[in-house]
Amino acid sequence: xxxxxxxxxxxxxxxxxxxxxxxxxxxxxxxxxxxxxxxxxxxxxxxxxxxxxxxxxxxxxxxxxxxxxxxxxxxxxxxxxxxxxxxxxxxxxxxxxxxxxxxxxxxxxxxxxxxxxxxxxxxxxxxxxxxxxxxxxxxxxxxxxxxxxxxxxxxxxxxxxxxxxxxxxxxxxxxxxxxxxxxxxxxxxxxxxxxxxxxxxxxxxxxxxxxxxxxxxxxxxxxxxxxxxxxxxxxxxxxxxxxxxxxxxxxxxxxxxxxxxxxxxxxxxxxxxxxxxxxxxxxxxxxxxxxxxxxxxxxxxxxxxxxxxxxxxxxxxxxxxxxxxxxxxxxxxxxxxxxxxxxxxxxxxxxxxxxx
Length: 356
Hints:
The chain is of the alpha+beta class.
């Protein structure tokens, strides 16, 4: 299948990624791929998990542990600035979800195929000419790390690639599904964190300036920094849409802010199935990957209702908690589908011809 997958990837680059890059920045309006060769080494599937519980009977959900280490040749240019760059090799490691839905009674038995990563994959790109690209006006604030984040997030839920296999399938509902629920995250406090700041060339241990990074899919929140405190109190609230469960997790990392490189203070990963089951979790969690430290979280699972019958009750409830979030707590979710347009004005392109 690999040669045909490569054809699909090339089409994806030219028809989806290239226009998206051009529209992202005025300086990139002449951006284009001049060569796309993914290479002959196919990706490896190191493991497959199939979900049989808590899933719709008209769908099949697979989680694939994928690993791709390939020598490729991808060349790109920005004609406006006579700037060229390229990619010599790519590594991707992560969990890709594949959803086969809807199942139908005729061949090919599957109406459509959806692909996405549940969380940001490990992505490494070996660039050529990247320095020249980052010298372009308007792009000199970027870095290879920021570019990797942009590419990674394009692949992560709620973004997805949906391929229809039959003509009758409702592709918009598959590409933009209604969220399964909303996760309200009360990021409260931590205790007994490691002191990373040192004085007198490391002889004296100091405190830390902790802050948290919270992720649900490609939704990322960052807390405020608490200066010189190993028992910080944030008391902040965030709300994240949950599109897939089982499988999605809440990821939290704590860091000590430093002038050069921030120090790691611990991490936490919570399966959202447990939160949905309990509806409300208010616990102290022991931090992973560090010798000490605990994090106090209150997690609420909010179910979406199809009507506004309970809206007054919800509004009364959040008024009581109105001081918990800087921008207020949500009471409802608005989903807008952009369907079509008619009678748009004609756009004329005037071309100047240069005669030699």
